[in-house]
Specification:
With about 525 residues, the chain is α+β, with helices and mostly antiparallel strands.
Length: about 525
């Protein structure tokens, strides 16, 4: 098993080899195409050859994944993820901001155990070993506590960068783009920058694992984290064809500030919305209040009346976070009355949308106060009937018969084109969030929340061949009640709006998003826990 001293030997061999290249013209000469599909310059090839030769001469037990040559199988258990020169353009131009980047693991970023960066121009060395901290020139590094009004960000602003990159550069106090991803992330690790934003417009120009493998471990060992654009910790396989965008930060609150505009001051204003019909509703509310001691807290009027204290209707609360105590229905009801961040304490049965278990309220609120969460933005459905807007829905909009055991005739139009014509008890238009609810009980598939689509689900259709179908989320869906008989429109099961016969309802994606606070569990773990094992 190789160690940091072996990586230091490889880096020194590379530094010595590239130091013999006479001038910038020679350094930048294109010699071939690399395994990653990009041109290989002379300095890249000389650096890689020096690294491979050192590994061979010293019989180091490691396979190699390198930017230029690709994968080299030496029959070892571990892989050296090597970028011989990260920041090639800088190296060619004589700009002293490039590295020899190396990491050792087995298959992906998540299992890397060693990291080593050498800046050949300055001699600076960054190193890390999993569980033992990160170091620059032998001195331990740590991330810094950010001032959210004075953020300093490293932002990729190359010719393939997303417009979001330029928007972010306008919002933060200071930003730089140095052209060397590994060193830019190292700046975050050593507490000189607050974060790094890498977002390319197309997948093929995203970052490769060889670019950041070493610096990811450096940052994580220094106390920071690297997130994908979905808010989950970044993981990448040891595969040159895989690309990614990411946000690297010293503290999670910086991620929230960048993505959702939330500041580090979040948590000073909380609202509590409790379903008073839940068993032990008052006790759960008291536990929540105790965990929020010292914070500015407002109680919803209904639970406040039960407890004999002042309260404020949810729709009038000026708060950052609403804590909902109850089941999924309570959380959906809360979302119809607030645009604040929402987190649920499960006081019901399944609690698929809730994040905090009723037996661990203090622990969950503690994580909330420490901003140990991500914000999951979910689409809402905006509905228009007879020229009037009815309440938005996060789960689904249901149209069903106003009379028991009576069938209706529906036509469904997608962007004004007839898509379906059938008789049924009703019809559901569901978001991915609602796909695990009523729609799933009718036989429709559940959808990952990251899927940008809607489900159209007939309810007990007359013909077996009438099946659920998926449409793009940007579509306008029109549902026509063909028969001269009335129906009911039910958004998220919270209210009933009468629908006359021979009329139609228009459904489009709302401009408002439901923002749910999430801790660690991913969607599929939640499905297994709540819907499969919990059934």
């Amino acid at each position: 098993m190789i160690g940091l001293e072996d990586l230091a030997g490889i880096a020194d061999a590379v530094r010595s080899a590239i130091g013999k290249i006479p001038d910038s013209r020679s350094r930048g000469e294109t010699v071939c195409m690399g395994a990653d599909g990009t041109p290989t310059s002379q300095i890249d090839k000389i650096a890689e050859n020096a690294a491979l030769m050192y590994i061979q001469l010293n019989s180091l037990p490691v396979n190699v994944l390198s930017e230029e040559i690709g994968y080299v199988d030496n029959g070892a258990d571990e892989v050296l993820v090597l970028d011989p020169i990260d920041g090639t353009s800088n190296a060619i131009a004589g700009v002293p901001y490039y590295t020899v980047s190396m990491a050792v693991g087995t298959s992906s970023l998540s299992d890397i155990r060693l990291a080593y960066l050498l800046n050949p121009a300055t001699g600076d060395v960054y190193s890390a070993e999993r569980g033992k901290g990160a170091f620059k020139n032998g001195k331990r590094m740590s991330v810094r506590h950010p001032d959210h009004n004075d953020l300093f960000m490293m932002i990729y602003l190359g010719n393939s960068s997303s417009p979001d990159s330029y928007d972010l550069a306008k919002k933060v106090k200071s930003s730089r783009s140095f052209g060397c991803a590994s060193l830019e992330m190292a700046l975050v690790a050593e507490g000189e920058a607050d974060g790094q934003f890498m977002k390319a417009e197309n997948y093929s120009r995203g970052v490769r694992v060889v670019d950041i493998a070493a610096s990811v471990l450096l940052l994580r060992e220094a106390g920071g984290e690297v997130f994908g654009m979905d808010g989950s910790p970044l993981d990448m396989p040891f595969d040159l064809s895989h690309r990614a965008n990411f946000i690297a930060v010293g503290e999670r609150s910086v991620y929230e500030r960048i993505v959702h505009g939330e500041s580090a001051e979040i948590g000073k204003r909380y609202g509590i919305y409790t379903n008073v019909n839940v068993r032990n509703a008052v006790e759960y509310t008291k536990q929540t209040l105790a965990a929020l001691e010292g914070q500015k807290v407002y109680l919803d009027k209904e639970i406040a009346e039960v407890m004999g204290v002042p309260g404020v209707p949810l729709e009038e609360m000026d708060v950052d976070v609403v804590i909902v105590i109850g089941g999924d229905g309570t959380l959906l009801r809360a979302l119809q009355h607030t645009d604040s961040l929402v987190v649920g304490i499960n006081g019901g049965s399944v609690g698929f949308l809730s994040e905090i278990d009723r037996d661990h309220i203090a622990e969950g609120i503690g994580r909330l106060l420490r901003a140990e969460y991500t914000v999951d933005q979910r689409p809402r459905l905006s509905c228009w009937y007879d020229g009037e807007e009815i309440p938005d829905a996060v789960n689904e909009v249901v149209i069903h018969t106003a009379s028991v055991a009576k069938i209706r005739h529906f036509r469904v139009y997608v962007d004004d084109i007839l898509a379906a014509d059938f008789r049924a008890d009703g019809i559901i238009v569901s978001t991915p969030t609602g796909s695990t609810c009523y729609a799933m009980s009718l036989g429709a598939p559940y959808m990952d929340p990251n899927v940008d689509a809607l489900l159209v689900v007939p309810m007990a259709p007359y013909k077996y061949t009438t099946r659920p179908f998926v449409v793009p989320a940007a579509s306008k869906i029109t549902i026509e009640n063909v028969m001269p008989k009335d129906c009911l429109i039910v958004p998220d099961g919270q209210s009933e709006e009468p629908m006359d016969g021979c009329t139609s309802l228009d459904i489009v994606a709302s401009t408002r998003k439901a923002r749910l606070i999430r801790f660690d569990r991913d969607f599929y773990s939640r499905v297994r826990e709540k819907l499969v094992n919990g059934a």
